[in-house]
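Handout for the seminar on molecular recognition.
Each group receives one record of this type.
Step one: identify the two inputs.
Step two: read the structure output and locate the region that could contact heme C.
Step three: write two sentences on what you found, then compare them with the reference statements printed after the record.
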Amino acid sequence: MSQAEKNHQDHQPVAKNNDYAGLMPLTLFLAIVAAYASLLIGWVVFPMLLYAKYEQPINFNHSLHVDETGDCESCHYFREDGSYAGLPGNDVCTGCHSDVMGSDPEEIKYVEEYVNKDREVDWYVYSRQPDCVFFSHAAHVLKGEMECETCHGDVGAEESTRPYYVNRLTGYSRDIWGENISGINNHDWSALTSAHAGEDDGEDGHGEGGGFTMKSMKMDDCADCHLHMKGVEREGCFVCHK
Ligand code: HEC
Ligand code: HEC
Ligand code: HEC
Ligand code: HEC
Ligand code: HEC
């Protein structure tokens, strides 16, 4: 026997097969722990890491203001040229808030930090799309007669602003990407079609939209609704892109 062969023999494992059997419960236990750990990471830790969370600069009470003004249009209106004004600036607010009128700390902060210093509030826009996207409120709200709630949810009823979450990987707001981290958000389009039939338009035309709200607003979601409501498949890219 050569020296090499001898060494090889010396290093054969000495244990017999059934000596490993004692390790089975431990292996199983570790596998279960690992499975739970990855579930925890997947469902709790990963989304926490995936989204950066920001609070709005001012905690704005929509419900209170909708009661005060009686509508949405005092703040969110169409300009003469049909473009959408979007978020209101201080000029809309100072009709009422030229001076502090109550003792609400958020109102005091708003008047002292923004109105008096002539600074606009830098609101986070939950539904913000990338710059290459062309979206028209006139096409949807005026021509399509759609409810705000269909795309935004019942924002008018909110008593405080919710946090703004942005996906660190895609850079998209969670309202665009959707709650589901995989980005797959199936919509029940039959609920939309019945909502669109106008069961509940509310007194001012801004009802609950029949209960249908978009879960996300990625390219596929826009195109899917167009397929269901306009009946068009494979629209030209420049319908939605600049
Ligand atoms: C029609 C009058 C009116 C207009 C317009 C108006 N507000 Fe108010 N706002 C009120 C009243 C009334 C209150 C309740 C009084 C208080 O709590 O100080 C209030 C309360 C607030 C508060 C404290 C409660 C809260 O929402 O957290 C903030 C902040 C505020 N307003 C910001 C704004 C901003 C920003 C705008 C413009 C986008 C605006 N308001 C437009 C009447 C108005
Ligand atoms: C007094 C002014 C005022 C009135 C009236 C008002 N809003 Fe707003 N709205 C704001 C301000 C200020 C913001 C920015 C802060 C926030 O996101 O809550 C905002 C934000 C929004 C947004 C969020 C857009 C985004 O993607 O970030 C929606 C949607 C909206 N409003 C819908 C409505 C609807 C629907 C109504 C009527 C039921 C309404 N608003 C009435 C002032 C107003
Ligand atoms: C819930 C349904 C729905 C969603 C979501 C939706 N749309 Fe639309 N969109 C429509 C309907 C319906 C029309 C046609 C309105 C009309 O002319 O009566 C339309 C029209 C348009 C138009 C005008 C051009 C045309 O063909 O009339 C553009 C541009 C557009 N949509 C872009 C978008 C983009 C971008 C998104 C996503 C960010 C989006 N839409 C999301 C339903 C939707
Ligand atoms: C078909 C879906 C749809 C409907 C219906 C709709 N919106 Fe929007 N809204 C959007 C999208 C998408 C954006 C983001 C546009 C962008 O970033 O270019 C947006 C943006 C906004 C903004 C922020 C604009 C800014 O300054 O950045 C406000 C405020 C708003 N919508 C209010 C409303 C109100 C009020 C109504 C009802 C009268 C309404 N929207 C109806 C989809 C919709
Ligand atoms: C129905 C509206 C619509 C149509 C039609 C459409 N897009 Fe989009 N597209 C969007 C929206 C909304 C986004 C932003 C959200 C997203 O990335 O899903 C987007 C995002 C994109 C992006 C990613 C850009 C970025 O900054 O992340 C590319 C690339 C793109 N579109 C290419 C195309 C091409 C090519 C076509 C034609 C074959 C097309 N799109 C047709 C609505 C549309």
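Reference statements: The CA atoms of residues 89 and 120 lie 6 Å apart. Residues 129-130, 132-133, 218-219, 222-223, 226, 235, 237, 239-241 surround heme C (ligand 5) (CB under 6 Å).
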